[in-house]
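Just wondering, can you check both lines?
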Amino acid sequence: MAKVQIKSEKITPFGGIFSIMEQFDVLLSNVIDSTLGKRCQSFGYSYSEILRSLMCVFFCGGSCIEDVSTHL
């Protein structure tokens, strides 16, 4: 049986985003990169990382791309 501890620390409202992004990495990341192909080496991010960031903004309450700097 699992033991549960009650803590008085503040809890972030975005705690579930980490498990969602882990599932994204496992299930969709390779599919996106293989479908869209590799980006040029001079770009620092892959297509899956870009889509992952946009999904994080959406799931954390953002309404536009510029909210990356506000919500994340």
User: Anything to note?
Assistant: Residues 47-59 form the longest helix (13 residues). The chain has one domain: 17-71. The helical segments are 17-27, 29-36, 47-59, 68-71. The chain has a mean pLDDT of 83.
